[in-house]
Amino acid sequence: MRRKASLILLALAVFCAALSPLLRWYAFPRLAKIPAHQYQEMVLEAKDATLLDYGTMKARKVSKVTIVQTLKGDVEASERIERSAGKDVVVWDGLSYVVGPDGKMVSKIPERYIFDAHTQEPVHATGEMVDGDPVRREGIEFKWPFLTEKRDYEYFDAQTRTSAPIHYKGTQDFRGVEVHYFEQTIPWTKVRFPKTMPVEGITPESVAETGTTRWYTTVRKFWVEPLTGAPVYGEEIHKEELRGGTLLGDRDKVTAFAGHVKMREDYIDHTVALVKSNRTLVLLMTSYLPWGLVTLGVLLLTLSLYLEARGRRPGDPDPARHTEPEPVTA
After folding, report:
1. Residue 266: which H helix or E strand, with range?
2. Which of 37, 91, 131, 179 has the fewest beta carbons closer than 10 A?
3. What is the DSSP string of 11-34?
Protein backbone atom coordinates (compact mmCIF):
# COMPACT_ATOMS: atom_id res chain seq x y z
CA MET A 1 0.00 0.00 0.00
CA ARG A 2 2.86 2.35 0.85
CA ARG A 3 4.57 1.64 -2.44
CA LYS A 4 1.41 2.46 -4.40
CA ALA A 5 0.98 5.76 -2.53
CA SER A 6 4.62 6.71 -3.12
CA LEU A 7 4.23 6.11 -6.87
CA ILE A 8 1.13 8.32 -6.97
CA LEU A 9 2.96 11.09 -5.10
CA LEU A 10 5.95 10.74 -7.44
CA ALA A 11 3.67 11.11 -10.47
CA LEU A 12 2.09 14.24 -8.97
CA ALA A 13 5.54 15.71 -8.24
CA VAL A 14 6.62 15.17 -11.86
CA PHE A 15 3.35 16.74 -13.07
CA CYS A 16 3.90 19.87 -10.92
CA ALA A 17 7.53 20.16 -12.06
CA ALA A 18 6.47 19.95 -15.73
CA LEU A 19 3.51 22.31 -15.35
CA SER A 20 5.55 25.10 -13.75
CA PRO A 21 7.71 26.05 -16.80
CA LEU A 22 4.77 25.41 -19.15
CA LEU A 23 2.67 27.93 -17.25
CA ARG A 24 5.41 30.57 -17.28
CA TRP A 25 6.91 30.14 -20.75
CA TYR A 26 4.02 28.70 -22.78
CA ALA A 27 0.70 29.67 -21.22
CA PHE A 28 1.54 33.21 -20.06
CA PRO A 29 2.68 34.60 -23.46
CA ARG A 30 -0.55 33.27 -24.98
CA LEU A 31 -2.95 34.29 -22.21
CA ALA A 32 -1.57 37.77 -21.45
CA LYS A 33 -3.09 40.17 -23.94
CA ILE A 34 -4.82 43.52 -24.28
CA PRO A 35 -8.62 43.12 -24.63
CA ALA A 36 -9.95 44.31 -27.97
CA HIS A 37 -12.83 46.26 -26.38
CA GLN A 38 -10.70 48.31 -23.95
CA TYR A 39 -11.58 51.97 -23.40
CA GLN A 40 -9.53 54.43 -21.43
CA GLU A 41 -9.40 58.17 -20.91
CA MET A 42 -6.58 60.34 -19.61
CA VAL A 43 -6.57 64.05 -18.74
CA LEU A 44 -3.34 66.04 -18.70
CA GLU A 45 -2.73 69.70 -17.89
CA ALA A 46 -0.11 72.32 -18.64
CA LYS A 47 -0.36 75.09 -16.06
CA ASP A 48 1.02 78.61 -16.69
CA ALA A 49 1.46 77.74 -20.36
CA THR A 50 2.04 79.89 -23.44
CA LEU A 51 -0.62 79.74 -26.16
CA LEU A 52 -1.03 81.47 -29.51
CA ASP A 53 -4.06 83.74 -29.97
CA TYR A 54 -4.94 83.17 -33.63
CA GLY A 55 -7.05 86.31 -33.63
CA THR A 56 -4.07 88.59 -32.98
CA MET A 57 -1.35 86.06 -33.92
CA LYS A 58 0.40 86.84 -30.63
CA ALA A 59 1.52 84.43 -27.91
CA ARG A 60 0.05 84.98 -24.46
CA LYS A 61 0.34 83.42 -21.02
CA VAL A 62 -2.66 81.36 -19.94
CA SER A 63 -3.51 79.73 -16.63
CA LYS A 64 -4.00 76.25 -18.03
CA VAL A 65 -4.17 74.17 -21.19
CA THR A 66 -5.97 70.80 -20.93
CA ILE A 67 -5.31 67.74 -23.07
CA VAL A 68 -7.89 64.94 -23.07
CA GLN A 69 -6.61 61.68 -24.54
CA THR A 70 -8.99 58.80 -25.27
CA LEU A 71 -8.32 55.30 -26.58
CA LYS A 72 -11.28 53.20 -27.70
CA GLY A 73 -11.03 49.63 -28.96
CA ASP A 74 -12.77 48.80 -32.24
CA VAL A 75 -13.74 45.13 -31.83
CA GLU A 76 -15.21 44.73 -35.30
CA ALA A 77 -12.07 46.10 -36.97
CA SER A 78 -9.89 43.89 -34.75
CA GLU A 79 -11.75 40.73 -35.79
CA ARG A 80 -11.57 41.69 -39.46
CA ILE A 81 -7.79 42.27 -39.36
CA GLU A 82 -7.22 39.11 -37.28
CA ARG A 83 -8.63 36.96 -40.08
CA SER A 84 -5.92 38.13 -42.47
CA ALA A 85 -3.10 38.62 -39.95
CA GLY A 86 -3.55 35.21 -38.30
CA LYS A 87 -3.02 36.52 -34.76
CA ASP A 88 -4.76 38.46 -32.00
CA VAL A 89 -4.97 42.13 -32.95
CA VAL A 90 -6.12 45.26 -31.13
CA VAL A 91 -7.35 48.37 -32.94
CA TRP A 92 -7.32 51.56 -30.89
CA ASP A 93 -9.02 54.71 -32.13
CA GLY A 94 -7.32 57.53 -30.27
CA LEU A 95 -8.07 61.23 -29.98
CA SER A 96 -5.92 63.96 -28.49
CA TYR A 97 -8.21 66.93 -27.80
CA VAL A 98 -6.61 70.17 -26.58
CA VAL A 99 -8.62 73.02 -25.05
CA GLY A 100 -7.58 76.43 -23.74
CA PRO A 101 -8.57 78.03 -20.41
CA ASP A 102 -11.80 79.31 -21.96
CA GLY A 103 -12.84 75.77 -22.93
CA LYS A 104 -12.44 76.39 -26.65
CA MET A 105 -10.74 73.83 -28.86
CA VAL A 106 -7.07 74.45 -29.67
CA SER A 107 -6.50 71.29 -31.69
CA LYS A 108 -7.72 67.73 -32.10
CA ILE A 109 -5.73 64.93 -33.66
CA PRO A 110 -7.30 61.48 -34.23
CA GLU A 111 -5.23 58.32 -34.59
CA ARG A 112 -5.78 54.67 -35.44
CA TYR A 113 -3.20 52.39 -33.81
CA ILE A 114 -3.16 48.69 -34.77
CA PHE A 115 -0.98 46.29 -32.77
CA ASP A 116 -0.41 42.71 -31.62
CA ALA A 117 -2.50 42.04 -28.50
CA HIS A 118 0.27 39.97 -26.87
CA THR A 119 3.55 41.73 -27.81
CA GLN A 120 2.30 45.28 -28.56
CA GLU A 121 4.28 45.23 -31.81
CA PRO A 122 2.56 47.26 -34.58
CA VAL A 123 0.47 45.42 -37.14
CA HIS A 124 0.39 47.17 -40.51
CA ALA A 125 -3.09 47.17 -41.98
CA THR A 126 -5.41 49.46 -43.90
CA GLY A 127 -6.63 52.26 -41.67
CA GLU A 128 -3.41 52.85 -39.71
CA MET A 129 -3.23 56.65 -39.58
CA VAL A 130 -2.56 59.91 -37.73
CA ASP A 131 -4.93 62.84 -38.39
CA GLY A 132 -6.19 61.13 -41.53
CA ASP A 133 -2.70 60.60 -42.98
CA PRO A 134 -1.66 56.95 -43.57
CA VAL A 135 1.37 55.96 -41.48
CA ARG A 136 3.48 52.86 -40.98
CA ARG A 137 4.47 52.71 -37.33
CA GLU A 138 7.67 51.15 -36.08
CA GLY A 139 8.07 50.47 -32.38
CA ILE A 140 5.53 50.97 -29.61
CA GLU A 141 3.05 53.71 -28.75
CA PHE A 142 0.98 54.24 -25.58
CA LYS A 143 1.69 50.74 -24.17
CA TRP A 144 4.95 48.93 -23.40
CA PRO A 145 5.21 45.11 -23.73
CA PHE A 146 4.37 42.82 -20.84
CA LEU A 147 7.53 42.19 -18.77
CA THR A 148 9.15 45.44 -19.94
CA GLU A 149 12.93 45.15 -20.00
CA LYS A 150 15.60 47.56 -18.75
CA ARG A 151 16.56 48.74 -22.23
CA ASP A 152 15.76 51.32 -24.89
CA TYR A 153 12.70 50.90 -27.13
CA GLU A 154 11.58 52.48 -30.39
CA TYR A 155 8.65 54.82 -29.68
CA PHE A 156 6.38 56.34 -32.32
CA ASP A 157 5.90 60.12 -32.28
CA ALA A 158 2.55 61.16 -33.75
CA GLN A 159 3.58 64.74 -34.51
CA THR A 160 6.59 63.86 -36.69
CA ARG A 161 5.05 60.55 -37.90
CA THR A 162 8.40 58.86 -37.17
CA SER A 163 9.88 56.57 -34.52
CA ALA A 164 12.89 57.32 -32.33
CA PRO A 165 14.55 55.65 -29.33
CA ILE A 166 13.02 56.17 -25.91
CA HIS A 167 15.77 55.55 -23.39
CA TYR A 168 15.64 53.54 -20.18
CA LYS A 169 16.95 55.82 -17.42
CA GLY A 170 16.62 53.65 -14.33
CA THR A 171 14.22 52.00 -11.89
CA GLN A 172 12.34 54.09 -9.35
CA ASP A 173 9.54 53.88 -6.80
CA PHE A 174 6.38 55.73 -7.84
CA ARG A 175 3.71 55.84 -5.12
CA GLY A 176 4.51 52.36 -3.88
CA VAL A 177 4.97 50.80 -7.33
CA GLU A 178 8.37 49.86 -8.76
CA VAL A 179 8.60 51.43 -12.23
CA HIS A 180 11.05 51.80 -15.11
CA TYR A 181 11.65 55.42 -16.11
CA PHE A 182 11.95 56.18 -19.85
CA GLU A 183 12.75 59.45 -21.60
CA GLN A 184 12.66 60.54 -25.25
CA THR A 185 13.77 63.84 -26.77
CA ILE A 186 12.43 64.93 -30.15
CA PRO A 187 14.57 67.81 -31.49
CA TRP A 188 13.05 70.75 -33.36
CA THR A 189 11.33 69.24 -36.38
CA LYS A 190 9.09 70.68 -39.07
CA VAL A 191 5.65 69.06 -38.74
CA ARG A 192 2.25 69.29 -40.39
CA PHE A 193 -0.55 71.58 -39.28
CA PRO A 194 -3.55 69.80 -37.72
CA LYS A 195 -6.36 69.33 -40.22
CA THR A 196 -8.79 70.89 -37.72
CA MET A 197 -7.65 74.44 -36.92
CA PRO A 198 -8.88 76.47 -33.92
CA VAL A 199 -10.22 79.37 -36.04
CA GLU A 200 -13.04 78.90 -38.51
CA GLY A 201 -12.00 79.60 -42.07
CA ILE A 202 -8.31 78.85 -41.49
CA THR A 203 -7.10 75.59 -43.02
CA PRO A 204 -3.66 73.96 -43.28
CA GLU A 205 -3.74 74.73 -47.00
CA SER A 206 -4.47 78.44 -46.49
CA VAL A 207 -1.66 78.70 -43.93
CA ALA A 208 0.75 76.90 -46.26
CA GLU A 209 0.03 79.48 -48.96
CA THR A 210 1.46 82.19 -46.67
CA GLY A 211 4.76 80.32 -46.38
CA THR A 212 4.40 79.87 -42.60
CA THR A 213 5.58 76.52 -41.22
CA ARG A 214 4.99 74.69 -37.95
CA TRP A 215 7.85 73.33 -35.81
CA TYR A 216 7.79 71.14 -32.74
CA THR A 217 10.04 69.71 -30.01
CA THR A 218 9.33 67.73 -26.87
CA VAL A 219 10.90 65.85 -24.00
CA ARG A 220 8.65 62.85 -23.34
CA LYS A 221 8.79 61.05 -19.96
CA PHE A 222 7.09 57.82 -18.88
CA TRP A 223 7.08 55.86 -15.63
CA VAL A 224 6.19 52.29 -16.64
CA GLU A 225 5.20 49.38 -14.40
CA PRO A 226 7.36 46.59 -15.93
CA LEU A 227 5.17 43.51 -15.36
CA THR A 228 2.10 44.92 -17.11
CA GLY A 229 3.96 47.36 -19.39
CA ALA A 230 1.44 50.06 -18.44
CA PRO A 231 2.56 53.67 -17.86
CA VAL A 232 1.44 54.80 -14.40
CA TYR A 233 2.47 58.41 -15.06
CA GLY A 234 3.65 60.60 -17.93
CA GLU A 235 4.90 64.13 -18.66
CA GLU A 236 5.94 66.17 -21.68
CA ILE A 237 7.91 69.40 -21.93
CA HIS A 238 6.26 70.48 -25.15
CA LYS A 239 6.99 73.43 -27.48
CA GLU A 240 5.52 74.47 -30.83
CA GLU A 241 6.40 77.43 -33.03
CA LEU A 242 5.17 79.01 -36.25
CA ARG A 243 8.04 80.22 -38.41
CA GLY A 244 8.39 82.53 -41.39
CA GLY A 245 5.86 83.51 -44.00
CA THR A 246 3.58 86.50 -44.39
CA LEU A 247 1.21 85.25 -41.66
CA LEU A 248 3.67 86.46 -38.99
CA GLY A 249 4.33 89.86 -40.53
CA ASP A 250 7.87 90.99 -39.82
CA ARG A 251 8.49 88.31 -37.16
CA ASP A 252 10.67 85.25 -37.78
CA LYS A 253 8.74 83.04 -35.39
CA VAL A 254 6.04 83.00 -32.73
CA THR A 255 5.29 80.45 -29.99
CA ALA A 256 2.14 78.47 -30.75
CA PHE A 257 2.23 76.45 -27.54
CA ALA A 258 4.74 75.91 -24.73
CA GLY A 259 4.07 74.11 -21.49
CA HIS A 260 5.00 71.36 -19.08
CA VAL A 261 2.22 68.81 -19.59
CA LYS A 262 1.46 66.58 -16.59
CA MET A 263 -1.15 63.95 -15.78
CA ARG A 264 -3.98 65.29 -13.60
CA GLU A 265 -3.87 64.12 -9.99
CA ASP A 266 -7.17 62.20 -9.96
CA TYR A 267 -6.14 60.24 -13.04
CA ILE A 268 -2.81 59.36 -11.42
CA ASP A 269 -4.61 57.77 -8.46
CA HIS A 270 -6.98 55.85 -10.74
CA THR A 271 -4.15 54.62 -12.98
CA VAL A 272 -1.93 53.48 -10.09
CA ALA A 273 -4.83 51.51 -8.54
CA LEU A 274 -5.69 49.86 -11.87
CA VAL A 275 -2.07 48.93 -12.60
CA LYS A 276 -1.61 47.45 -9.11
CA SER A 277 -4.64 45.22 -9.71
CA ASN A 278 -3.42 44.04 -13.13
CA ARG A 279 0.08 43.56 -11.74
CA THR A 280 -1.24 40.95 -9.30
CA LEU A 281 -2.72 38.94 -12.19
CA VAL A 282 0.59 38.98 -14.07
CA LEU A 283 2.48 37.95 -10.92
CA LEU A 284 0.07 35.05 -10.50
CA MET A 285 1.03 33.69 -13.93
CA THR A 286 4.75 34.51 -13.90
CA SER A 287 5.73 33.97 -10.27
CA TYR A 288 3.17 32.83 -7.70
CA LEU A 289 1.77 29.79 -9.56
CA PRO A 290 5.06 28.60 -11.19
CA TRP A 291 7.06 28.81 -7.96
CA GLY A 292 4.13 27.42 -5.97
CA LEU A 293 4.04 24.39 -8.27
CA VAL A 294 7.80 23.89 -7.89
CA THR A 295 7.49 24.03 -4.10
CA LEU A 296 4.55 21.64 -4.14
CA GLY A 297 6.47 19.27 -6.43
CA VAL A 298 9.46 19.20 -4.05
CA LEU A 299 7.19 18.46 -1.09
CA LEU A 300 5.42 15.66 -2.96
CA LEU A 301 8.75 14.18 -4.06
CA THR A 302 10.07 14.28 -0.49
CA LEU A 303 6.96 12.54 0.83
CA SER A 304 7.14 9.96 -1.96
CA LEU A 305 10.76 9.11 -1.13
CA TYR A 306 9.91 8.92 2.57
CA LEU A 307 7.11 6.41 1.98
CA GLU A 308 9.30 4.39 -0.37
CA ALA A 309 12.06 4.26 2.21
CA ARG A 310 9.68 3.07 4.91
CA GLY A 311 8.31 0.40 2.60
CA ARG A 312 11.79 -1.00 1.94
CA ARG A 313 12.94 -1.08 5.67
CA PRO A 314 13.49 -4.62 7.03
CA GLY A 315 10.71 -5.83 9.33
CA ASP A 316 11.10 -6.87 12.93
CA PRO A 317 12.64 -10.37 13.59
CA ASP A 318 10.24 -13.31 14.03
CA PRO A 319 9.46 -14.15 17.65
CA ALA A 320 11.44 -17.08 19.22
CA ARG A 321 9.70 -20.48 19.10
CA HIS A 322 9.24 -22.26 22.46
CA THR A 323 9.19 -26.07 22.34
CA GLU A 324 8.46 -28.61 24.99
CA PRO A 325 11.53 -30.72 26.06
CA GLU A 326 11.47 -34.25 24.73
CA PRO A 327 11.98 -37.18 27.12
CA VAL A 328 15.38 -38.86 27.21
CA THR A 329 15.36 -42.45 26.22
CA ALA A 330 17.80 -44.99 27.49
Report:
1. helix 265-283
2. 37
3. HHHHHHHHHHHHIIIIIHHHH---
